[in-house]
């Protein structure tokens, strides 16, 4: 069965974005040319995100095709025409991801947080986390971990310094 993983950056006070979905604080972070993203992405064949995250990611990618040649699953309440490699879905997040886990492929990456991540945490479905912590305090915004019915014991696998940012890789302990 395919693993479900989270990879993403947060502010020191736990926010994915500010209250206006602005990521400039993240884009301004000096990584000194270091990244784990490329090696991480090679392990992924399905990218899962909400519509807003998808739109911001598309905007940031400019002319380049977002995750070219890889499957993208976008949760949205509205009606959207599916595009090449992109499927819009709505409904029970847990059941939809369970279905994707049974299909052939590499890991499933949960991009963003909140409304998609919370039910998966509550269903004990997140196998690993790669969380990059940026030394910025935002005070307000969209939290990575919303309050919910979940409790995890995690094992630290590695920490990596990426310029100003520190990445921690964690695995769920069953």
Topology (SSEs and partners):
Layout: E1 4-11, E2 15-17, H1 24-27, H2 37-41, E3 44-50, H3 51-61, E4 71-75, E5 86-89, H4 93-101, E6 107-110, H5 117-122, E7 128-134, E8 142-143, E9 154-162, E10 165-172
Parallel strand pairs: 1-6, 1-7, 3-4, 3-6, 4-5
Antiparallel strand pairs: 2-8, 7-10, 9-10
List the main descriptive attributes of the protein structure presented here:
globular, 5 helices, Dihydrofolate Reductase, subunit A, alpha/beta, 174 residues, two-stranded antiparallel ribbon, 33% strand, eight-stranded mixed beta sheet
Question: What features would you describe in this structure?
Answer:
The protein has 174 residues and is α/β, with parallel strands linked by helices. It has one domain (4-172): Dihydrofolate Reductase, subunit A. It contains 5 helices and 10 strands; from the N terminus they run ββααβαββαβαββββ. The protein has helices spanning 24-27, 37-41, 51-61, 93-101, 117-122; strands spanning 4-11, 15-17, 44-50, 71-75, 86-89, 107-110, 128-134, 142-143, 154-162, 165-172. Strands 5-4-3-6-1-7-10-9 form an 8-stranded mixed beta sheet. A two-stranded antiparallel ribbon has the order 2-8. Helix 3 links the parallel strand 3 (44-50) and strand 4 (71-75). The radius of gyration is 16 Å and the shape is globular.
